[in-house]
Amino acid sequence: MSTPASPILAVRPLGFPWETADPFLFCAYHDDAYPRGNGKMGPAGSLAGRDIGQDFSRKDGWSMYHGDTVPGFPAHPHRGFEAVTIVRRGLIDHSDSLGAVARFGGGDVQWVTAGRGIVHSEMFPLLKTGEDNPLELFQVWLNLPQRSKMAEPHFTMLWNEQVPRRVLRDGEGRRTEVAVIAGRFGDMAPLAPPPDSWAADPRSNVAIWTIAMEPGAAWTLPAAEDGGTRRTLYFFKGDEAMVAGQLVEGPVAISLQADAEVPITTGDTGAEFLLLQGRPIGEPVAQYGPFVMNTQQEIMQAMQDYRRTQFGGWKFGASGPVHGAEPERFARYPDGREERPGGY
């Protein structure tokens, strides 16, 4: 009797950013052990030894990125793709050229369709002055098909309290929790993605899930509808796990056959995973920094358009605005509508 082929296609170490497969462009994982704040939303203590404005050093376990006094990413443009930001710990202050502002974190998800062009800032305010301010997030870049590259920009929030989650227990009662940002999980449907997203078409089979498993927990990742779907499981926390009968040591990216079930059993430290899957868009990709189009000519046009229009312009006094000392999460949309899901 022949042995069934393993659903594991490849195992690769994780770098920065994480390598992804079409329809995704990349995933950046930030896990910064920020110290207590200085009362001005920056880190207490000296910034000496950092390349301010370009600090990706992870000195002392954290970076300033492109911020100079508050860590984060001041105003910068995008065109031609979507950014899905999943904040597990800490807070982000968002502002954009549509006029939207938001403070979100602690399980919230922001989904921005850049489309024909948007400028936004993503700052990491360190509100706590008496204790540390850890920040942990994923930012996933999801490509747009050619027909949607010049769609109207769109900003939406998927609040922690609304994100569908399911807790499952194995025969020993050990817990696995699946949070569903995109894609169905059994009979559990996700919140609606933006209208022009590749994820808005059920045929795209896009899924973005986070999976947290207790030490020794056993769970089986269900098979996806194939249709050429590409599936990657990012094992980013935990020492080791048995994946489809193979011992895997983290942190790694595991490429999987999408239409196969994958049994997973964790080791003594438990494990956390990010699942990204989707049917490939299958179109040429031309990228220059924050612009992702199909041809180099379209990249040149994006640069010219940005120089000419600034994608609507920047309506804030600072390039990296922050939204006050109160930790309450909120969003104000371009039409003036406000959402306040509660405190942090």
Q: Give the percentage of residues in beta strands.
A: 35-45%
**CATH topology category name of the largest domain:** Jelly Rolls
Distance separating the two termini: 56 Å
CATH class of the largest domain: Mainly Beta
Helix/sheet category = mainly beta
Q: Order the strands across the largest sheet as they lie in space.
A: 1-18-15-20-13-12-11
Return the domain count: 2
Keywords:
mainly beta; Pirin_C_dom; 6-stranded antiparallel β-sheet; 344 residues; globular; Jelly Rolls; 7-stranded antiparallel β-sheet; 1 helix
General description of the model:
- The protein has one helix at 296-309, and strands at 8-13, 24-34, 72-78, 81-89, 91-96, 101-105, 109-113, 118-123, 133-143, 154-158, 165-169, 175-182, 207-213, 218-221, 230-237, 240-243, 246-249, 252-256, 262-266, 271-278, 286-288, 291-293, 329-332, 338-342.
- The chain is mainly beta and 344 residues long.
- It has two domains: 17-38 and 65-163 and 298-315, Jelly Rolls, CATH 2.60.120; 165-283, Sandwich (Jelly Rolls), CATH 2.60.120.10.
- A seven-stranded antiparallel beta sheet has the order 1-18-15-20-13-12-11, with no helix packed on it.
- Strand 16 (240-243) and strand 17 form a beta hairpin.
- The chain is globular.
